[in-house]
Structures are given as structure tokens and as C-alpha cells.
Design goal:
By secondary structure, the chain is of the alpha+beta class. About 25% of the residues lie in helices and about 25% in strands.
Length: about 750
């Protein structure tokens, strides 16, 4: 994909897709109907982002307020900003840390107006850069490097223009959303240079600042009052009741069109490292244009890993542009997070990989992390080592992790998710991870929280965690096998065999329990390591496929979606449907591929076709729900290629692709080529296509799956498509891994 295939504004406004029809009209969307993305400047998997700041939820950008379900309420009447802030989340939902530190504001008035929100216009965004014009005529442009941000401001003629940096506040303009520094230090170190550090959420964020505002006055300020001659500010114990705004500014006259550049290096390990980071990202003489070009080059390399071809039947230009934009933006959103920052942990002294804004594993472990593993195995290994270090230093694998002291465990969401990711890395055979040491932490982590109940009783509540932990043991067994520990492998496999305890054999569904953001229906069709046993528990192929048909709404009437501030009765009625969430949320995003294990790949094709072409579109309202750090977008990438990863099992399921041709570079000099015959244009108003036959590297492929090893080696997948389903892959099922469960009284010693 190319930079021009990306529209960073997709997902920044409430969902505005055409009215769904057919199968898609029967799905119910319980979560916020907005992508919660931002269009700001980002670097692939980088530490820093930058965007205009309105204080809106949850990225600091935009016009909409806090909501956990339905259509988001409007918070601002139009696009506004009080400046540019740094460190934004990407597509998340309700969490408790919102970043947006170090606000930079160009001003044409006094400091008394600092913090006001001005209208913004003429926004443009592309991978690596973002720009807008503030009311008053100042043009604001920003680009970022891995650990830096470079701003450029073009001023109108004015006798006393200002460039103001505010270090006093972060977070959002919502109840309990603001972040106030505990301690702060700021110092002017020379003409056009300064350094500082703020401690926010227990984390020290340091910065080294440079500007080319030659001849301008350089001043510290406190409580919106200038401090002439002052060169240093120190705050040892800031409280919300004692906080007064403070920061740094440059001021002077401007001619029409005069530009001022501002460069900021960031670090979590002090101002000296922040200065080194700025030098690494912006070597001497590198200004805004140079840094932007370098960031665009990095994005071009990452996006270029996937190339799409339209085939012999050319779509109309509008159709081609729209489809490419949806896919290209999905790939872009898949590579914004997690934020990797090597040698930057402020919480332990050792060097090495560090990750923050891992928000959250629950959202990304099934789609985004497998995509990262395929496209950038080097960064996947870096993330794997970062997770192991977190467990080593803090005592548990995180479910989520932020630029804040201590990991976020999000214990209601899920358990043992890092195990899934690590199992894939281990089975891939990547170098650079000490797997014996990883195994120690994987075993220890499985005993925490819900793990104790699982060991004692064979089941835990919420019952979804029974499946999580059982699969966590299966994943751990793969690592034990790789290091030659047969005893631990066998014990883990026996514990993994406890997954049936989560199910009600009378209904074929999960037992009644409490469920996070869904019902037992949304969680009952996850892809287990023993899908053959799961299908048998439901009564066999036909019974299992019948349950899935009801879940996906085959033959059901259209449903009504939640509106603004939906009430309890409306939400309870929707949940009572027991229906697929249509990629509005993550709990059932792997369920369409469950059909494959029951010999019904045709049903998978029908559901995936409806999701791809009715639930995703162009424009700011083009996402059906929170993108959640790329978890949703990664689903689009996989499904468009006719694939879906079975996370933790080093397995990829196959389906009809949405493009006639695709080429995917697998992190080295190998390439996966997907070629189709019989392809016709597909879209929201067309019927799906089905796989008639496949060939992998010239050999007939009658199974709807490939191993991760086969994909990583690269090759050519030839897919013959038809308008009617046939017998392909009905008899050969993906691998299942049954194992007899260990009695509940046993546990690993």
C-alpha cells in the first residue's frame, strides 16, 4: 500500500455507514458507534504521536464525549483546538489514562487566553504528518519521529506573536479525565533551548526542547504571568488544589508567512536521554521537512509490505479508490500501536525493550499481534521480550500497559493473553527470546487471579476465564515442548483439557455466568485448541452449524441499533438477542471462522463478506466501533486477504479473498502471493463468492488452512472462486488438539 491509500480521518466521527441489509441487518452493536481514532502524526509502532487538542474523548481530538454504549454524545459543536498535544491513544474505549501531555499553542494574544478553544479548519493528514489552521490564521503542522516531535507554525503579520508550551495539564476535558503532574522541573538552558520533566501517573516524562525563533524573547511563565529573567521552575509536590498553569514561551513580532519550528525530544529516562533521542531523530540541520520525509519513508516501508492488484476486471475509479482506502487505512491503524520504546523504561534500570500504550491485549491478541508477527517479526520479538520483562519486574503479564506506574490488569476482560502471543512466537522459532525463562513466567502467571480457582475446581467465574486459562496452559505446553521439558508439557496439556467445564452440554453453549461486554453467545464460538471436541459437545457438525446460524442471524429479522444514551431496557433487549456484534466489538471477532471446523466454509464466506463490505467504509464515520489499538483494523486486513489467524496455534484459516490479487512480504525476503481466478467485483450490494478449489505452491489444497510455518516460508496461493458454494474443505478440517483433563485436585508443583 502507498501513503495516498491512507485516510487517517477514518474512525474520527460517529459511524455513518449505509443502512445494513440482509445478514448484516440482524447484528446488534452494543458498544460505542465511533472508531475513536485520531488523525494526528504518528510513527510506526513509535513512542510519540501529536494532534490538535480539544479535550474530547478518548484521544483528546474531536467533538464527542464519553460513552460506553450506543451513539456518542456531542461534546463540542464544531472542530476546535487549544493547541497541539503529544501521546494519544488509538481507537480505545473507556480506560483511566488519556495522555495528551506537553501542549503547544501558537498565540496572537496574551497568556490570559491560553486554554481557550479556537475553531480549526483546513485539516490535512497523512501517515507521519498532520496540519490544520487555527482561527486567527496560524497554520499548524506537526510530524513525529520514534521519540520526537517537530512542529512548524506559519504566522500572519503580528507585532507580538507567541509560541507557548504548557506542561501543567494533560488528559481529557471530561470528569476525572484530567492528568495533573505530581512533580515538575523546567529550565531555560540557552537561547532557543530548554529542558524539563514532569511526573505524571507516576511516570517521569522528560523533554529537550529547541526552536529557531531567532530574536524572540524566551520566557518562563507561571499562573499565566511572565517571569522576566527567570530561568528555572521547580515544583516538588503539586496538588489539584494548588496547581497553577506553568510553562515556557517565545514571543516576538512576525512578518506575513514567517515560520517558526519547534523540536522536542522525549524520554522516560531523563533530559539527557531526551536530548540524545532528539539528535538521533533529527540530526544536525534536520528541520520539519527532513523529519517528515524520514517518517513518510518509514511508513512507506511498513505499508509497502502489502500490495493489492485489481485483476483483469477493473472496478470504477471511485470503487477502486474506496476499497483501497479502507484497506490501506486499516493496515495503517494496525501499525500505530503498541508504542515500543527501547531503553526507555522508567521503572527498572536495565536496558532493552519496553512497551507502553499496550491497550489492551484483549483487543489485539487475536488479530493485530498475529499480523505484527507476520509482517514485522523483529518488532514482535521486541514486544515479546518487553512483556517478559514486565512480568519479571512487576510479577505478572499485563492485560494492558500504559505510560503509568504499574500494569493495568483489566481482570474482568480476559486472562493469559500474553501466553497466546508468546506461543505463536515460540512456534515460529524466532531468535532472540530466552524460552526457558519465558516458560518460568508463563507458568507462574497462570496461577494468579482466576488461576487459583481453575486449579482447585477445574472452572472459574466469569466462566470465560476458564477458556482463557485452559488455552493459556495449552500455549504454555507448546513452549515447554520447545525447550524439551516433557513433564511440564504433559501437565499443562492435561490442565488445558479442562475447557469443557465451561460449557453446558444441554445447550452446547457456555454456562450461565457474568460476561464482559457480551453474552454467553458472543463467547461460545471462540476458536479453541480442541475444536473437534467443542463441536462434539454441541452435538456434531450440523448442530454446531445450526447454533452458529442462529447466532449470525440467518433468517432473522433486522434489529434496531442503540441510539444516544440508550437505557437499560433497550440494552437488555439487545443483549437478549444473543446475536453477533458485527465487529462493533471484539469478543466474537473470530466466530465467523468457527464454521470452518464444522465443514461449512461457505458460511464463513457469507458472514465475512457481509462484515467487510457493510461494516467498514470510507470517510470519518467509516468504522463500526472502537478500533481498539488496531484490533478491529487488523481484522479487516486479514479478512480482505482471505485469511484469519488462530492466535496461539500458529495456524491461519483460509477463505475467499476480497481482492483478485495480493502480495504480502513476510518480514524477510519471502513473499505470500494470493492469486484468484473467477474473481468478480464484490461490494456491499453484491453476493459473496465461494472457494471452489485452492492450490498452494502448485499442489492441490483441499483444507481451509495453512500452518504459520508454511506462510512464513512464502509461496503462491491460487484460489479458484465461484458464485455458488461447492465441496471444497468440507471434509478436511483444521487441526484440533484433544487431551484428557487432569482431575481438579491436581496442580503443578
Amino acid at each position: 500500500m502507498k501513503l495516498e491509500d491512507v485516510d487517517p480521518f477514518i474512525g474520527t466521527q460517529p459511524t455513518a455507514l449505509p443502512e445494513p441489509h440482509g445478514l448484516a441487518a440482524t447484528w446488534w452493536w452494543p458498544k460505542p458507534q465511533i472508531g475513536n481514532t485520531h488523525p494526528g502524526a504518528t510513527f510506526p509502532l513509535g513512542m510519540v504521536s501529536a494532534c490538535s487538542y480539544s479535550g474530547a474523548y478518548p484521544t483528546g481530538y474531536g467533538e464527542y464525549g464519553l460513552t460506553t454504549e450506543g451513539v456518542p454524545p456531542r461534546m463540542r459543536e464544531r472542530p476546535v483546538a487549544s493547541g497541539v498535544t503529544h501521546f494519544q491513544q488509538s481507537g480505545t474505549g473507556a480506560i483511566r489514562k488519556y495522555y495528551n501531555y506537553v501542549r503547544v499553542t501558537p498565540m496572537l494574544g496574551s497568556l490570559d487566553a491560553l486554554g481557550e478553544r479556537w475553531d480549526i479548519a483546513d485539516e490535512v493528514a497523512s501517515p507521519g504528518s498532520y496540519a490544520f489552521t487555527l482561527d486567527g490564521g496560524v497554520r499548524c503542522e506537526v510530524t513525529v519521529g520514534p521519540k520526537s516531535a517537530v512542529h512548524r507554525y506559519t504566522f500572519p503579520k503580528h507585532r507580538d506573536a507567541r509560541l507557548v508550551i504548557d506542561l501543567s495539564l494533560g488528559g481529557l476535558d471530561i470528569p476525572y479525565g484530567a492528568t495533573i503532574p505530581l512533580r515538575a522541573h523546567l529550565e531555560s538552558t540557552g537561547p532557543g533551548e530548554a529542558e524539563g520533566e514532569i511526573v505524571v501517573e507516576g511516570t517521569p516524562l522528560a523533554m529537550h526542547i529547541e526552536t529557531d525563533a531567532a530574536g524572540w524573547r524566551q520566557l518562563l511563565w507561571y499562573d499565566r504571568r511572565l517571569m522576566p529573567g527567570g530561568k528555572r521552575l521547580d515544583f516538588d509536590a503539586i496538588r489539584p488544589t494548588t496547581l497553577r498553569p506553568f510553562g515556557l514561551m517565545w514571543a516576538g513580532p512576525t512578518t506575513e508567512g514567517q515560520t517558526i519550528e519547534l523540536r522536542i525530544g522525549f524520554s522516560l529516562r531523563g533530559v539527557e536521554q531526551a536530548a540524545r533521542n532528539l539528535r538521533a531523530d533529527c540530526p544536525a540541520g534536520t528541520g520539519f521537512d527532513g523529519r517528515r520525509a524520514a517518517s513518510e519513508l518509514a511508513w512507506a516501508e511498513h505499508l509497502g509490505a502489502v500490495r493489492l492488484g485489481d485483476g483483469p476486471e477493473e472496478p470504477t475509479p471511485a470503487e477502486a479508490d474506496g476499497r483501497r482506502t479502507v484497506f490501506g487505512t486499516a493496515l495503517y491503524h494496525s501499525l500505530v500501536k503498541p508504542s515500543l520504546a527501547v531503553d526507555e523504561s522508567p521503572f527498572w534500570p536495565s536496558k532493552g525493550p519496553f512497551v507502553f500504550d499496550l491497550c489492551t491485549m484483549w483487543d489485539i491478541y487475536r488479530t493485530q499481534l498475529p499480523l505484527l508477527t507476520l509482517l514485522r517479526p523483529d518488532r514482535a520479538v521486541e514486544l515479546g521480550n518487553a512483556l517478559i520483562t514486565i512480568c519479571e519486574e512487576e510479577g505478572n503479564f499485563p492485560i494492558g500497559y500504559r505510560m503509568a506506574k504499574g500494569s493495568d490488569r483489566f481482570s474482568r476482560q480476559a486472562s493469559a493473553l500474553a501466553h497466546t502471543f508468546l506461543a505463536d512466537l515460540c512456534q515460529a522459532g524466532f531468535d532472540g527470546i530466552d524460552w526457558e525463562w519465558a516458560l518460568v513466567h508463563m507458568l507462574s502467571d497462570l496461577r494468579r487471579t482466576y488461576g487459583e480457582d481453575f486449579l482447585a475446581h477445574g472452572r472459574t467465574e466469569p466462566v470465560t476465564h476458564t477458556l482463557d486459562i485452559a488455552f493459556g496452559y495449552w500455549c504454555t505446553a507448546q513452549v515447554a515442548a520447545s525447550v524439551g521439558d516433557g513433564k511440564v508439557r504433559d501437565e499443562c496439556l492435561a490442565l488445558a483439557g479442562r475447557w469443557p467445564g465451561a460449557f453446558d452440554r444441554e445447550t452446547g453453549l457456555l454456562r450461565d455466568s457474568t460476561f464482559y461486554e457480551g453474552t454467553k453467545h458472543n463467547y461460545s464460538y471462540r476458536l479453541l485448541h480442541d475444536m473437534a471436541g467443542r463441536i462434539a459437545l454441541a452435538g456434531g457438525d450440523d448442530a454446531f452449524a445450526g447454533l452458529l446460524d442462529g447466532f449470525f442471524g440467518f433468517g432473522a429479522a433486522p434489529v434496531r441499533q442503540p441510539g444516544v444514551r440508550p437505557g437499560d431496557v433497550e440494552m437488555e433487549g439487545g443483549y437478549a438477542l444473543g446475536r453477533f456484534e458485527g465487529l462493533n466489538n471484539e469478543p466474537d471477532m473470530d466466530a465467523p471462522w468457527a464454521y470452518t471446523y464444522a465443514g461449512r466454509p461457505d458460511r464463513t464466506a457469507e458472514v465475512v463478506h457481509a462484515v467487510l463490505h457493510q461494516m467498514f467504509g470510507t470517510g470519518p464515520g467509516g468504522l463500526p466501533g472502537n478500533d481498539d489499538s488496531g484490533g478491529l483494523s487488523s481484522w479487516v486486513v486479514w479478512a480482505s486477504l482471505g485469511m484469519f489467524p488462530v492466535a496461539g496455534q500458529d495456524l491461519v484459516l483460509l477463505n475467499a479473498p476480497a481482492w483478485p490479487e495480493a502480495r504480502v512480504a513476510t518480514g524477510g525476503d519471502r513473499e505470500i502471493v494470493v492469486q484468484t481466478s473467477g474473481f468478480r467485483r464484490v461490494g456491499r450490494d453484491t453476493a459473496p463468492q465461494y472457494v471452489r478449489s485452492m492450490r498452494w505452491n502448485g499442489a492441490q489444497r483441499d483444507a481451509a488452512w495453512l500452518s504459520g510455518a508454511q506462510l512464513r516460508e512464502g509461496g503462491v496461493l491460487e484460489v479458484e472462486l465461484a458464485d455458488e458454494p461447492g465441496d471444497w474443505a468440507r471434509d478436511q478440517r483444521p487441526p484440533s488438539h484433544p487431551h484428557e483433563a487432569v482431575p481438579s485436585s491436581r496442580s503443578l508443583e
